[in-house]
Amino acid sequence: MIQARQLIQVLQEYSIPLIIGVVAGLAFANIDHHFYEELVDYRVFGSGVEVFGRPVTSHFIINEIFMVFFFGIAAKEITQSILPGGALNPIPRAINPLMGTLGGVIGPAGLYLLLTWVFYGGTDDFSVVANGWGIPTATDIALAWLVARLAFGNGHPAVNFLLLLAVADDAIGLGIIAVFYPDPEHPVQPAWLLLTGAGMATAYALRRSKVNSWPAYILIAGGLSWAGLAKSSIEPALALVVIVPFLPSTEIDPGPASQKAHQGVGPRRHGEGMVPAVYRPALERFEHQLKLFVDLGLFFFAFANAGVAFGSINAVTFIVLASLIVGKTLGVSSFSWAATKLGFPLPEGMGMSHLAVAGLVAGLGLTVALFVAGKAFTGPPFQDPAKMGAVLSGSVALLALGAAAVLKVKDGAGSGAERP
């Protein structure tokens, strides 16, 4: 039992299901692409079953339903970061990484558009390719956190700096998906967003009623939000982004009577006393009880989205990859450096060498970049090349670790006189 837990912990800590999914998707797509397409487009409940006009395929279940929980976990990280004691609270301590975040969006998006003009300027494909500018703007939180710990060492301030940057980066990325990448096959119908608003109102009412059961928020309020986004032709995978912030984030005081009624509940240590697990805030239990499901499920997401034939590589692949590697590094580094000049310093113990490596690690855009690539391009000839660029961004891990070794950031280089 202990060995099984240790194995699961290793799988989660090193994002192994995601990595295996990428490799498996690439292998299947290049060995037998037709069979791979049949697996991804398989109609799970038969050819006649649709949800709001969309066939219920394997791809639909993974991208439009499973990814709801992935983005919900991301929303939890964002919510927690702005609460008292969070990385974004108070705001002054977060100015520098937030400036880096801004550069991490503007830099790659700007470079993407520049390279698109270089390769496709004056052609009929320019506007189509340019629509993919959102692909390199987000950072894969899990992979960035993993590589940062390997590059800087556990507990280094650069790790928390990068984690905060990635969380804020993905918050902007979620907004970009919602606003700029609606379903191209179904015109946007804003009136249906009233249903999403009803979901938010329901979540607010549940919170006001001191409901501390996260499934109530996710199933009832989240269901309304999902239906509203799906009917309005805005990405339904974002359904929980507007619901999760309503989950109670503070400890529920059970009181003597309630404690007696719940004597059978397993306790956990909290401060000086023991508090039954049922009284943990819903926001905390939401992540704790779904994280394993999401981490393991990323295998299926990667398999269904990373299956790209190597023969599809073209200029778009290079544009996406260069925007993630070069655009992110320059954007994060330059904007964060500018923040230091404006009086908002880097965290104690970080110097320019750490900042450069952190900017490079931020170029790991695998998960969200794959997701956006599927929304930016509806199919051939640019979707697969763009996805390949997102997949190849995984090579940033090797580049970052190499740069970390050369700059000796793990040994504390850059923490003294090198600080700007």
Structure overview:
By secondary structure, the chain is mainly alpha-helical. The chain has a single domain (2-44, 54-410), classed as Na+/H+ antiporter like fold, CATH 1.20.1530.10. The chain is 63% helix and 3% strand. The protein is built from 17 helices and 4 strands. It has helices at 2-13, 16-31, 33-40, 58-82, 95-120, 126-130, 141-152, 157-180, 193-208, 214-232, 255-261, 282-305, 315-341, 352-361, 366-376, 383-392, 396-407; strands at 50-51, 54-55, 267-270, 273-276. The strands form 2 sheets. Strands 1-2 form a two-stranded antiparallel sheet. A two-stranded antiparallel sheet has the order 3-4. It is globular, with a radius of gyration of 22 Å. The termini are far apart.
> What is the mean predicted local confidence, pLDDT?
86
Count of domain modules = 1
- Figure out the total of helices: 17
Would you identify the CATH H-level superfamily?
Na+/H+ antiporter like domain
Topology as a string of helices (H) and strands (E): HHHEEHHHHHHHHEEHHHHHH
Strand order of the largest sheet: 1-2
CATH topology: Na+/H+ antiporter like fold
How far the N terminus sits from the C terminus, by CA atoms, comes to 50 Å
What ranges have pLDDT less than 50 throughout 5 or more consecutive residues? 252-275, 413-420
Number of strands: 4
Under the CATH scheme, the architecture is Up-down Bundle
Sketch the major β-sheet. 2 strands, antiparallel
Shape: globular
- The helix/strand class is mainly alpha
- CATH class equals Mainly Alpha
Per DSSP, what share of the residues sits in E-state strands of 2 or more residues? under 5%
Rg from alpha-carbon coordinates: 22 Å
Helix coverage percent: 55-70%
